[in-house]
């Protein structure tokens, strides 16, 4: 874990949220409520477990897949932060964690590609990612997800309220929902 934990700036976050994960499996408990982010996280689980189970023959392909996935996944989250003016105080720490994780993956990928490290080191990277992810999702991505939903849909309150309005709505009338959404 040393590469993932090296930055003092948020070492306390990592320590607080990292624990050993035997097997990372997708389940509804990992859903955060922002659909496109949940899709990224589902893919994260898939590519990281493929890396954890990789063999000498498949390790480099699995590393390339994790690297490509993480670049896209993190870029998307950064784009959402920018678009929704996610407060700096939260985004700085969040981006730092992404940068460190990506640096570790780049390093292991490069060394593995030239034969400097073996399968054990590749599997240790996969384990680090498995241990890191639940805490990062709980602590950092969940606040971003809630923020995005709050910015784009007026937050969870509107979702609940929309259901209520649906029940009461006069057939053919859209006005109840519009009035309600503006009020929220
Ligand atoms: Fe994420
Ligand atoms: Fe993130």
UniProtKB/TrEMBL annotation:
Keywords: Iron, Metal-binding
GO molecular function, one term: metal ion binding
InterPro entries tied to this protein: Hemerythrin-like_sf (IPR035938), Hemerythrin_metal-bd (IPR012827)
UniProt superkingdom: Bacteria
Keyword Iron: yes
SUPFAM superfamilies linked: Hemerythrin-like
Region Disordered, annotated ranges: 1-20
Family the entry assigns: Belongs to the hemerythrin family.
Protein name per Swiss-Prot or TrEMBL: Hemerythrin
């Amino acid at each position: 874990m040393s590469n993932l934990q090296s930055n003092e700036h948020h070492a306390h976050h990592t320590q607080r949220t990292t624990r050993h994960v035997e097997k990372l499996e997708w389940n509804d408990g990992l859903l955060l409520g922002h659909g496109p982010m949940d899709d990224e996280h589902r893919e994260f689980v898939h590519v990281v477990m493929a890396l954890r189970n990789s063999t000498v023959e498949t390790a480099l392909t699995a590393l390339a897949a994790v690297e490509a996935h993480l670049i896209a996944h993190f870029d998307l989250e950064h784009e959402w932060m920018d678009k929704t003016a996610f407060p700096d105080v939260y985004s700085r720490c969040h981006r730092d964690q992404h940068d460190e994780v990506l640096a570790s993956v780049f390093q292991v990928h490069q060394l593995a590609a030239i034969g400097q490290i073996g399968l054990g080191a590749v599997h240790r990277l996969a384990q680090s990612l498995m241990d890191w992810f639940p805490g990062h999702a709980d602590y950092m991505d969940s606040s971003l997800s809630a923020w995005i939903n709050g910015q784009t849909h007026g937050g969870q309150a509107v979702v609940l309220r929309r259901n209520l309005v649906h029940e009461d709505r006069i057939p053919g009338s859209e006005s109840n929902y519009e009035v309600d959404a503006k009020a929220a």
